[in-house]
Amino acid sequence: MLTRNCLSLLLWVLFDGGLLTPLHPQPQDTVEAEPRENVAPVPGRRSSAQRVKRGWVWNQFFVLEEYMGSEPQYVGKLHSDLDKGVGTVKYTLSGDGAGTVFTIDETTGDIHAIRSLDREEKPFYTLRAQAVDVDTKKPLEPESEFIIKVQDINDNEPKFLDGPYVASVPEMSPVGAYVLQVKATDADDPTYGNSARVVYSILQGQPYFSIDPKTGVIRTALPNMDREVKEQYQVLIQAKDMGGQLGGLAGTTTVNITLTDVNDNPPRFPKSIFHLKVPESSHVGSAIGRIRAVDPDFGKNAEIEYNIVPGDGGNLFDITTDENTQEGVIKLKKPLDFETKKAYTFKVEASNLHLDHRFHSVGPFKDTATVKINVLDMDEPPVFSKPMYTMEVYEDTPVGTIIGAVTAQDLDAGSSSVRYFIDWKNDVDSYFTIDATEGTIATNELLDRESTAQYNFSIIASKVSNPLLTSKVNVIINVLDVNEFPPEISVPYETSVCENAKPGQVIQIVTAADKDLSPAGQRFSFRLSAEASNKPNFTVHDYRNNTAGIETRRNGYSRRQQELYFLPVVIEDSSYPVQSSTNTMTIRVCRCDSDGTILSCNVEAIFLPVGLSTGALIAILLCIVILLVIVVLYVALRRQKKKDTLMTSKEDIRDNVIHYDDEGGGEEDTQAFDIGALRNPKVIEDNKMRRDIKPDSLRFPRQRPPVEDNTDIRDFINQRLQENDVDPTAPPYDSLATYAYEGNGSVAESLSSIDSLTTEADQDYDYLSDWGPRFKILADMFGEEESYNPDKVT
């Protein structure tokens, strides 16, 4: 059969395909020649005006792909009517593959393929042929285009470009449920023969799945495939060309199919009764046990919800689902007590959260099991009779007063005594003490509600038999108020009244504040003090709602007469004992406009003309201050200038020291200076101010009694000594006043009249002449004075 088919193909190619080309081509294989005009007349040829046919141009040739012969494959022959067979015509070939794939015999026009061709690489070639005169090298025919088509053979098997495949289908699906569509591609020519006609079949995977041979659609072939029995399937698919006939090429691929889960199985407990043992000391909210129901489904279809069926003991326990293990976690809702109840029994129901209505007929998707819990006896700490204690005590309660008690008991079978003590955390706890045996709480210090209104601390009770077992309870003690503080006026304590106020006008609403904890319904009363009730200026109107109004009682007020009023207001509370206080309000008289708006409350505004602005007042005051500063500076400069003149004067006299700049001539020089200045102290009295220092401030000079012209110098010196002794501001600064006594060692004895026992009348200066020439000037001086003043005043 194969030999017959190959022979038929070869004969068709030879005769119908044009491999053997006759000189005169068949009408179905030729194309009429284009009209051709001769450029120059050629002898023996037809006129250029005549139409001629070109019978040598072929529309297409065929060449067999994958040719494996030893000789070049013959494709066809080109021939021109102008070729007489004498070698004057040359055939040329150009275009796709000319010279590399195809060659032409220049003399005969035979075309050969010089290498093997692949249709899947290039299905056809477009070439151009031309006949040229050998001698003139001019074309005898116009260039003509033709096609060489590569003839396909079945040399490519089908291929699954997207394989291998992965697919899924729900378990329990009916027969014919769609799974996946596969597709194979054949590179052969689909328009020629059956080389590219593909047929699909299953080589492995039956009887679970089937495939459509033409479309490649895979479907389920068995009903009720269960994921819990088998989850993964591997199907081998084959695609064969030539329509699946013998000799066709085939390709295969693998399809991995997974059965996805559906909720087709209810949860089931592996046993009907679960036993748990729980210590009675277990904390509320703690997990005391786990139970589990088994569901063969997967994912959300295996999610289980556990519930306790109402019944015996179910209200003491709760159950939740562990999302990771799908176990039921039993937790304690209330504390257990072995002495009260030793065992509990209840039922637990397990059910699926996500149900599939297609499988309701299978039965209820839930299961029930019984849980029995045995309570174990444990040594427990004492239990207080209350979860919290609240007590009250009045402030200033004497130390040691019992204000309440706490009670704790040991509920175990072998009851033990209990000891109490305060859980010391801070200094506040030291205000109270507790009896270790009785649990009574007493004050340890005086309490003050205004300092601390509430105390919060903890009491610890421990078993005597086991001190490590303790329990704790909170105690709150509220300190009750005792009325010990009088009420006071809330701010402000100062208000104002207009000069043009009318009688009965409310100038201020006052309220009261009490440092004590005012009970509900506390009332405050307001009134004037007794000494102020008779004055006709202001009054207090009690509104009986814990407020009062300050009202005027006069028709107008004058700031010139009185700027401030002090109003004593008495406030009483309604607690026991009654407390009261007198609060003084300051009322300032202000200038207001006709609407009662305050314009000015300053004192200086009284003396200013109406309409003078504040800026103008400030400017006037500033000018006055500047003038005062200028006057003070002027006076200070004048005094400083006068002082400098006196300090530099050559007539400057400091006490009894004469200042002069010339050098004396010795003992014989009686003209060096005038000693009359010492004899006449009045010269010094003319200088009222001290000129040896710069005074810090101006002060009046010391007043001295007038000095007589003939006063003795001794009295003058004594007077200056007394002034310096009693003057606290006297220097010395940079001057030294020396009043010396020569002593008893001198032959001439003392020349001073200080401490002298004789008076001026008893003095005789004649002995100075006997002391020698050194005392001659002094003897002459006193001798002259005696002749001048007979009274001898020294």
TrEMBL record:
Name the UniProt record assigns to this protein: Cadherin-12
Region annotated Disordered, chain positions: 26-45
Pfam families: CADH_Y-type_LIR, Cadherin
SMART domains: CA
Gene3D superfamilies assigned: Cadherins, TCF3-CBD (Catenin binding domain)
Membrane topology per record: Single-pass type I membrane protein
Chief localization: membrane
GO MF annotation terms: beta-catenin binding; cadherin binding; calcium ion binding
Source organism of the structure: Calidris pygmaea
CDD domains in the record: Cadherin_repeat
GO BP, sorted A to Z: adherens junction organization; calcium-dependent cell-cell adhesion via plasma membrane cell adhesion molecules; cell migration; cell morphogenesis; cell-cell adhesion mediated by cadherin; cell-cell junction assembly; homophilic cell adhesion via plasma membrane adhesion molecules
Protein's job: Cadherins are calcium-dependent cell adhesion proteins. They preferentially interact with themselves in a homophilic manner in connecting cells; cadherins may thus contribute to the sorting of heterogeneous cell types.
